[in-house]
TrEMBL record:
This is Tc1-like transposase DDE domain-containing protein. InterPro entries: RNaseH_sf, Tc1-like_DDE_dom. It comes from the Bacteria. It holds the Pfam family DDE_3. Residues 1-20 are annotated as: Disordered. Residues 1-11 have a biased composition (Polar residues). Residues 18-142 form the Tc1-like transposase DDE domain. Signal peptide: none annotated.
């Protein structure tokens, strides 16, 4: 039928033209980041869908080791092996991180190849976190951003589900149960 518009037709008084015209909402153009900067470290368990995110003002080796200690406390002691897939950032391979891995033998660090972020299962979750916490919002301070990330992570953990890597399967017709039948050829 196409686009339609509401019009008043002659002889009918359905629309009153005396109403004041509505004005569009105005929003200030946002040109920059207002010197608001910080870093978020995250951990993700694909089998359960649980996530942990902590924000820091700086990206340092001390903050990274502090985050690894938080992950160590977050993961249950029954877990025998922790595989941490990390990128090639220099803080991820610092001597303090090596000391951490020696003190915690269940940790295994796997460094992903350069330009292969898609191999890390946390990358799709970062996209979801950005849409939950940051999309469509304007922040003036780093504390507001950190609070939004904390709330979004808490919301995610309340509604967590196992995370499956790859694209979502489209609607497929259900398969028939049973043994497949041999196709019948018709004779002419």
């Amino acid at each position: 039928m196409g686009p339609q518009k509401a019009t008043s037709h002659p002889g009918q008084q359905l629309v009153r033209p005396a109403a004041p015209k509505a004005e569009r909402a105005r929003q200030e153009i946002d040109y920059g980041r207002r010197d608001v900067a910080g870093y978020v470290f995250g951990a993700f368990q694909p089998a359960t869908g649980a996530a942990l995110a902590q924000s820091y003002h700086h990206r340092t080796t001390t903050n990274w080791v502090d985050f690894l200690s938080a992950v160590e406390a977050w993961i249950t002691p029954a877990t025998e092996r922790i595989s941490a897939v990390v990128d090639n950032l220099n803080t991820h391979s610092a001597p303090d991180v090596l000391l951490f891995s020696l003190l915690h033998p269940r940790w295994e660090f796997v460094f992903q190849p350069k330009y292969a972020a898609y191999l890390n299962l946390i990358e799709p979750w970062w996209k979801i976190l950005r849409s939950l916490a940051l999309k469509g919002r304007r922040f003036e301070t780093w504390a507001e951003i950190a609070q939004a990330i904390e709330r979004a992570t808490a919301y995610w953990n309340q509604h967590k589900h196992p995370f499956i890597w790859g694209r979502r399967r489209r609607h497929r017709p259900p398969r028939r149960l049973g043994v497949a039948a041999v196709p019948v050829l018709s004779r002419i």
